[in-house]
Write a structure and sequence with these properties.
single chain, 20 helices, 3-stranded antiparallel sheet, 14 strands
């Protein structure tokens, strides 16, 4: 027989007792809480809070730091994290909320990120890393690599981009001179949306001329209106200079590639970049170092047009200063320049292992690898030898040159040079590069390069599961914070999964 049981009064249970009954020891958050000591966070962040002003701190730094780990572990938005902290019992337990407490407002998460800033987040990252290193992990050979991150913006067409520049200037004018703002057309001009994509080619050309003239007129009017307006005026000037040119008295789109070109007024740090000749993106690059056993040991973001090799020295120095010095670093050819090898090997006592780019001569003539190059002389493929060279003191480069009469009568001249004579230039650290090329032919080098590929799945993990495929915020500073929190999250997750597992602890 089906019957409805009589209702009865709910039994009141003390919060911690509920947690004891419901929290699973197999849960990733339970294991992280067991292994990582988060008590240092409150002391580390105490200087960022007033001791005698404002309300008492309810959302403590440790609570918000733990919240950041939960948020990035699950790739939650700030609003989703607020809901998780309100209704998810595992989240409430991990971040330290009583079971009957309401969650914080989602805005508290952004306030906490901004309050800490790049420097403090990196400090907390290394504090966690030191705990992991103290258990014998995250040491040994380090791999280094870069991955791209898409900017959180829409890429405007030229006309729309100039319109955005006009908009930000108009808004600054409104703040200091509302009357002039209205005289210039006010909101109607500032938020003008002309649906350029519907225009034909000739109409787009006419519209471009119209918008450029409007922008130039606004620049003239806004000149000298104060530093805040001037900042936006300079932004508008840059947009015009990089995207528009005057040819034969006609205003047209600039077809030349502009170095370090601005791509958005919303995110001024984002840049066009390329993974290859065919794979291009707009956003940033994140360079990271990873230990053999799968822990991120440092991470840093640059604009999308940054060169990977330029990041190596500051990335390594920051790790040495805050953590420990690696004895060997393995990377791809971008990191293997002569300057980087000198800085790592000679100046820091670190072995840098990286392949070299294949010698390439765009003319199809002999490359430098066809020549026998020594410190004091060079021998060409035909057997001629020269000891004549010029030395550039500023760059440290030597340029060897063969005599004109030798090259003129050489049977291989057509395959060697189109000039009167062939020259060969070697860098300042040529001998160091030469030794590295010898090492790159050994079995040990091949083993090193096999290990390098392990960093790519780790980067894939950060992008696919922790939300680093796309920037969550605008600006390089905030992307660095995102990358640092992501690195903290994958490290504590890795630590919890490895300690006590059945795999080989320090290499699995």
């Amino acid at each position: 027989m089906f019957s409805i049981p009589n209702s009865r009064q709910t039994t009141f249970i003390h919060g911690p007792t509920v947690y004891e009954k419901l929290i699973s020891e197999d849960h990733i958050l339970y294991r992280i809480n067991k292994l990582i000591d988060f008590t240092f966070v409150n002391n580390a962040c105490s200087d960022l809070y007033s001791l005698d002003k404002g309300r008492p701190v309810k959302n403590t730094p440790e609570m918000m730091f733990r919240s950041a780990i939960v948020q990035y572990l699950n790739d939650y938005s700030d609003r989703q994290m607020e809901q998780s902290a309100r209704y998810d019992i595992m989240t409430k337990w991990f971040i330290g909320l009583s079971i009957e407490d309401n969650s914080y407002d989602h805005s508290a998460l952004g306030d906490f990120r901004d309050r800490l800033g790049e420097e403090m987040w990196k400090k907390l990252f290394f504090a966690i890393l030191k705990q992991i290193e103290s258990e014998g992990f995250a040491k040994g050979t380090q791999q280094v690599d870069a991955t791209h991150v898409i900017a959180n913006i829409a890429i405007p067409a030229t006309i729309d981009f100039i319109r955005q520049g006009i908009k930000v200037v108009m808004y600054e004018i409104e703040k200091i001179n509302p009357k002039l703002y209205n005289e210039l057309g006010g909101k109607k001009v500032a938020t003008k949306n002309e649906k350029v994509y519907k225009l034909n080619i000739n109409d787009k050309k006419s519209k471009l001329v119209e918008v450029v003239k409007e922008a130039r007129k606004l620049i003239e009017i806004a000149d000298g209106m104060g530093p805040y307006v001037e900042e936006k005026v300079n932004l508008l000037k840059r947009i015009l200079n990089e995207n528009v040119e005057v040819k034969n008295d006609n205003i047209q789109k600039n077809k030349d590639k502009v170095k370090d070109r601005l791509v958005s007024v919303v995110d001024e740090d984002a840049r066009h970049g390329a993974k290859s000749d065919k794979k291009k993106f707009t956003g940033y690059k994140v360079n990271s170092m990873m230990s053999e056993d799968g822990f991120i040991t440092n991470i840093n973001a640059t604009p999308g047009n940054g060169y990977d090799g330029d990041v190596l020295v500051p990335l390594v120095d920051e790790k040495i200063e805050n953590s420990s010095k690696p004895m060997k670093i393995v990377g791809d050819s971008h990191y293997g320049s002569g300057d980087n090898r000198y800085e790592m090997t000679v100046m820091r006592g670190i072995t840098l292992v990286a392949p070299f780019r294949e010698d390439f001569n765009p003319t199809g003539l002999f490359t430098q690898k066809e020549f026998i190059i020594e410190d004091t002389c060079v021998t060409c493929p035909a057997g001629s030898r020269t000891m004549d060279f010029n030395y550039n003191v500023k760059s440290g480069k030597k340029t060897f040159f063969f005599e004109k009469k030798v090259c003129k009568n050489c049977a291989l001249r057509k395959r060697c040079t189109k000039q009167d004579r062939r020259t060969i230039t070697i860098g300042e650290h040529y001998e160091l590069v030469k030794e590295a090329k010898k090492y790159n032919k050994t079995k040990e080098y091949k083993e090193d390069m096999k290990g390098r590929s392990k960093i790519e799945p780790k980067q894939g993990e950060m992008k696919r599961f922790q939300g680093m495929a796309r920037a969550k915020f605008w600006g390089l500073s905030k992307l660095n914070i995102q990358a640092t929190i992501t690195a903290i999250t994958v490290n504590v997750k890795r630590f919890a999964n490895v300690v006590g597992s059945s795999c080989s602890l320090k290499m699995c």
